[in-house]
Amino acid sequence: MPEPKIIGFLCNWCSYRGADTAGMARLKYPPNVKIVRVPCSGRVSPELVLRTFREGADGVMVLGCHIGDCHYSTGNHRAAKRMPVLKKVLEYSGIDPERLCVNWVSAAEGERFAKIITDFTETIRALPPLTEEMTWTKG
Amino acid sequence: MTQTSHEEVRIGVYICHCGSNIAGTVDVAEVSRWAGLLPNVVASHDYKFMCSSLGQELIEKDIQENGVNRVVVASCSPHLHEPTFRNACARAGLNPYLFEMANIREQDSWVTVDKGEATKKAQALVAAAVGRVAHQQPLNSLFVPINPDVLVVGGGITGIQATLEIANSGRHVYLIEREPSIGGHMAQFDKTFPTLDCSACILTPKMFDAGNHKNVTMLTWSEVEKVEGYIGNFTVTIRKKARYIDVDLCTGCGVCQEKCPKKVIDDVFEAGLGYRKAVYTPFPQAVPKYPVIDRVNCTFFQKGTCKACEKFCPTGAIKFDQADEVITVTVGNIILATGFDLFDARKIPQYGYGRLANVFTSLEFERLTNAAGPTGGKVVMRDGVTVPKTVGIIHCVGSRDKNYNNYCSAICCMQSLKFAHLVKEKTGAEVYQFYIDMRTPAKAYDEFYQRIIHEDVHFVRGKVAEVTDAARNPGEEGKLIIQVEDTLVGKQRRIPVDMVVLSAGLEARADAKEVALKFGISCSADKWFIEKHPKLDPVATMTDGVFVAGACQGPKDIPASVAQGAAAAARVLSIIGQGEIEIEASTAIVDELACVGCKECITTCPYQAIEFLEDKQKAHVIEALCKGCGTCVGACLSKSISLRHFTDDQLVAEMIGAMWTMKQFERAELEAQNA
């Protein structure tokens, strides 16, 4: 089974820095997730996530600041409202909504970041490659 | 900086070894070789330390001599060295926004065990950056002029300090205070720790200076209603509540207060221990000297007759028909110094405050010991005459307690020690301190603690379980019994005392969240205002031009508050000194042809930075207000709004770069397995 390919959209202020904190603490986690830095989780449009699946990603992560800690005060509220709707769209399109991970990591939470990455990578490993899943759905 | 979007893209890629930090895990030579084969890449190097001057010169040389017009550095986190490399690009004449960084240290070499995997991940991250940088556009920062006037909100010691610093430098300050006088909590205190100097003696001269400074417009009995604008250009709407006093005529003689027949319990300044009149100044040294009429308690306002004050006022300054006045001021910067509220000790019923007469709060005790207070400085019990023979002081009331507030209120240990000293000095009573941990970590604080220990104060280490008047033996009759586990002895103790003082913690103002919203800043879960950086930027906030100082940001004693007030003033003055300010170049922009005028972006924007052009029926971004979060982009249904430097093109190219690389490796692996 090929290794899952995952893209993570991380906000610049909390989750991206949380990833840096994990690095500074030399915490080890699987290399599958490639990080794309965005200013805020609110910048992540549903189309961007869909396009990422379209390019063959097996999983997509959207990580932002904890609710209440957003650098832009309420940008992550938008992400928190948008992403569950997107999950429904994914499900409707035959993509397991588990493949989209939406979570919150502060700049100090290196351990939490490493755990979220590890857990999500495991979740995706347990699923078939996205291309196969799509084929099955088409039936 | 002459790049246009049409010229040929020539990318230089630089892979940093970071000593062995990266090179120890990632095959940097291989990444560099491979990056050289990517589209548009004309130069690819690996180097020991890219951030060194030699590393930076490598980039500058390629820009100047080899026509490189896009730069990718694969090294550490952009939070560390993005400014370094952007500057290197700018020095060589390349717009700094044509630079991109791949984080192969914090997010790769330091977190990946397998060297082969780490190298592949570095390749994917470099390909992503190469893909992205090809789509990047030069951006120029926007500059806006700074209005040199400043608004200081809150007239406590912090706000006064900030006001004086700025006013003394020749800049104009609007100092706004919601109470009738400036002075804040410090005006209520008698002595200040650890020096025991008289609070009023050191505060009132500063109050006078702030109130009478030629560069200060003091607006007391006033509140901020609305804040619009951005750093350098705020418009603030202020409600000046009606005083019912014509301040141009009032001389502050005090006859009105003398003649007013209506006595009111003063639960603000006197903490409920004393009285004031319905027309009053909170205390004799109040600044300004003009009183206010308390409409709710004034006999004239309630019953329609009285007007004793008006009858006796020698200058005819009483104006019952005065109305609230709403004014607007324009300022360039704002300092919030709104202070704290005292923890309401009634929330801990087992300590008996409000039920047991001789349980006092710390603020009540401050008023008791204050020579200008309701008892003239005599420490007496609630009956007003009996001097206590034993006093118990309980620390951490509402602090360091998961049922109330988790944090340490920072001032209570020292305040309690000060109380112990004052009780000893004024009454000679036995004093018991009940503490969890003694925290005295500032200049001359621990020395003060040692001094109090030697004044024969009893220290009991343990959290008080209960204060009760239910005696179990004749010795406890008529006393308040403090039930506590003495953790140093390991025993339960019952200590009978005459008087209990609760060192109540500090809490954020009850309306802190509304205030934060008004000024566009954030609150922590405990409702303290959040600073930009807890260590390196303690008085700035995430909203440029809005600063926080003193206890509104977290519990603080007087020295720390004064330091922050001065610090905020220094930050503001440094901004004013710049004359104009550079604002975020990564801002949103609307494609007016595509915009359908649905206004979705306007409701989404956290900064009210998008306006609606009624004539065109299109959205329009006010660049100076936009912080570049891109939340509008995520919301736009017609895909007509984009965020500079984080455009869909750029993010998709970055994502595709990473995906393409991962797919390449996957294919190669499959082929190897099949072969």
Q: Can you describe this structure?
A:
The complex is a heterodimer of chains A (139) and B (675). By secondary structure, chain A is α/β, with parallel strands linked by helices. Chain A has helices at residues 15-24, 46-54, 75-92, 110-126, 130-138; strands spanning 6-11, 33-38, 59-64, 100-104. The longest helix of chain A is centred in the middle third of the chain and has 18 residues, at 75-92. The two termini of chain A are 21 Å apart. In chain A, 55% of the residues are buried. Chain B is of the alpha/beta class and 675 residues long. Chain B has five domains: 11-139, Rossmann fold (3-Layer(aba) Sandwich), CATH 3.40.50.960; 150-241 and 325-339 and 522-578, 3-Layer(bba) Sandwich (FAD/NAD(P)-binding domain), CATH 3.50.50.60; 255-312, no CATH class; 341-507, FAD/NAD(P)-binding domain, CATH 3.50.50; 584-643, Alpha-Beta Plaits (2-Layer Sandwich). In chain B, 29% of the residues lie in helices and 23% in strands. In chain B, the strands form twelve sheets. A five-stranded parallel β-sheet of chain B has the order 10-7-6-18-29, with helices on one face. In chain B, strands 20-27-21-22-23 form a five-stranded parallel β-sheet. The longest helix of chain B has 27 residues, at 648-674. The model of chain B has no long low-confidence stretch (mean pLDDT 94). The interface between A and B is large, with 48 and 56 residues.
